[in-house]
Structures are given as structure tokens and as C-alpha cells.
Amino acid sequence: MTARLDGKVALITGAGSGMGRAAAELFASEGARVVVTDVVDDGGNATVAAIRAAGGDATYVRADVSKWRDCEAMVQCATDTYGALHVLYNNAGIFPGDDGGVLDTPETTWDSVMEINLKGVWLGCRAGIPAMIASGGGSIVNVASFVALMGAATAQIAYTASKGGVLSMTREMAVEYARQGIRANALCPGPIQTPLLEELLSDPVRRARRLVHIPMGRLGRAEELAQAALFLASDDSSFMTGASLVVDGGITAAYVTPE
Ligand code: NAD
User: Fold this and answer.
1) Based on the structure, what is the number of domains in the chain?
2) How much is the pLDDT for 84?
3) Which of 36, 129, 132, 142 has the highest CB neighbour count under 10 A?
4) Is the CB of 189 under 6 A from ligand 1?
């Protein structure tokens, strides 16, 4: 059986931790050569080491997605090292603890969330799309969230607004590049057990408040999101573009969760 990403070059931002790392390992096991990027070198290098130990091919490059020069350089790394770019997985994101309600969220927090979560996705695409066209087309996967579709139970105004932007931007870029062989889809995860949610989930009250909204009664695992990302990244989703794939344990399906 052919691996699902055989011959593909994939770049994953924020791949030194959580869902990005799980996706990097899965994509490599499916035959992709993977460019791992992050701002935390130890995390990025650990992901590459795990991939190589499993017999895969990966390279780490430090890149802050909110900086244009870094985004240009990470794409250059993909084309210099592997000669092409077919999959761009814009995964990097932050969720600061002081992102709260409309009235109490600091302006600096709003700005940094927008810079990384929203502008970072745009800059990644701005750098990656020309290389993808030159490689004969490919697939962009942008990480939004279930909060792009509905209000969060615990206020996180900047994060929610940034993910809404990712979702609408993804639709528009899908339309713009559909005739040039580039697909763009958004992934909308529910709460997933990763370091991003560590602070929130270490508080038993906040944890319980999250869990009560999830019909499946548990958090998702990074590996479960990686499988959804693999579907969007690979030709298995060849007629899908401008769509959002919700992977949330049923949150957005529920008005009231079962007892
Ligand atoms: P994580 O914190 O485990 O991983 C995020 C990675 O992004 C980290 O390695 C971090 O160093 C990196 N990063 C942060 N700022 C960066 C920057 N400026 N440039 C490059 N890399 C940067 O988090 P995760 O849960 O795996 O989150 C991955 C994505 O999924 C994020 O976009 C997040 O918003 C989204 N998401 C997470 C959840 C969840 O419940 N965990 C739910 C919905 C969406």
C-alpha cells in the first residue's frame, strides 16, 4: 500500500509541541518529508529527533510565524532542503492566560494573539503559496477552533476573534487559488489535551466547565487531530476546499449535553 503522503514535502508551524508534533510524526510516517518549525528550538529539535528515530525524514528551522522574514525563510528551507512544498499546515498558535472578557483583556494580549494566530497564518500562506504553485499545487491546512463557530463558555475574546478570522480567511484563499491547484481548508478542534490548555485544565473548576460541554465527556488527543489533518493534507480530500472540518467530540452538535 502506498503511504498517503508519499513524495510530498510538508511544512508544519508550531510543530515542537502538541498537535503540530503529532501531525509531524504522522505525516512523516505516511511518507512526507517534513519541515518542522517553531520558536522553541528544544521542542522543534525533539520532534525531528523522534521522526528520524522512527526512520522518517525531517528538518527543523526556527521561525516565528508573526515575522515575514521568518516565514520566507521557512519556506526557503523547504525548497532548498527538499526541492518543493506541497503541504502547508499553519498550526502555530497561542492562548494567553489573561485573554478574557471584552472589558478586561489587555490590549497587548489582543495584539499578540492577532499577530501570531491570525497574521501568522496569512504570512505563512503568503510565503508558501508561490512555492506550492511552483511545486504543482498542494494543500493548506489552517488551524482555527470550534470557537470560530460558537461563543466560548469562558471568555477568551482575542483568541476567539483570531480563530474566526482564520476560518473566513481560509474560505477566501480557497476561492482565490482553486484554479491553481491549491486547496485550503480549516481544521476546527474542540478542547485537546496539549500544553496549550495546561494552565486552563490544571484548575479543576475550569476543567469541569469545559468537560460538561463535550458530549463525548472527554478531551481530544493530539493524535486524533493529526489524523484529521492528514485527511485534509492528503489527496484523500481532493475535492474539498474552503471547508471546515470540525473535530470536537460533539460540542458544536449539542444544545444540551446528555447526563
Ligand atoms: P501547543 O502549545 O502544544 O503548541 C503550539 C506550538 O506553537 C508550540 O510549540 C509553540 O512554541 C508554537 N508557537 C507559539 N508561538 C509561535 C510563533 N510565533 N511562531 C511559531 N511557533 C509558535 O498547542 P496546541 O494545542 O498543539 O495548538 C496547536 C494549534 O491548535 C493552535 O493554533 C491552537 O490555537 C489550536 N487549537 C488548540 C486547541 C486545544 O484545545 N489545544 C483547540 C483548538 C485549537
Assistant:
1) 1
2) 98
3) 36
4) yes
Q: Pinpoint the alpha helices (H) of the chain.
A: 18-29, 41-53, 68-82, 107-113, 120-134, 157-177, 198-201, 204-211, 222-233
At 126 the pLDDT is 98
3-state per-residue secondary structure call for 216-236: CCCCECHHHHHHHHHHHHCHH
Residue nearest to atom 17 of ligand 1 (CA): 64
Domain, as residue range, for 236: 9-192+221-247
Supply the residue whose CA is at minimum distance from atom 32 of ligand 1: 93
pLDDT digits (tens, 9 = 90+) for 218-247: 999 999 999 999 999 999 999 999 999 999
- Whole-Å CA distances, 63 to 40, 68, 98, 152, 157: 9, 9, 25, 30, 26
Domain membership flag for residue 200: no
Instruction: Decide: 203 and 188 in contact? Cβ < 8 Å.
Output: no
What CATH code is carried by the domain that includes residue 113? Answer: 3.40.50.720
Considering 60, 82, 159, 177, which one is annotated as catalytic?
159
Q: What per-residue confidence (pLDDT) applies to 1?
A: 65
Round to the nearest angstrom and report the end-to-end CA distance of the chain.
Answer: 43
Residues of the chain predicted below pLDDT 70: 1
Specify if 258 maps to a domain: no
Residue 170 near ligand 1, beta carbon < 6 Å: no
Ligand 1 centre and the CA of 102: distance in Å? 23
Pick the residue whose CA is nearest to atom 18 on ligand 1. Answer: 64
**Residue 74 resides in a domain:** yes
Domain presence at residue 4: no
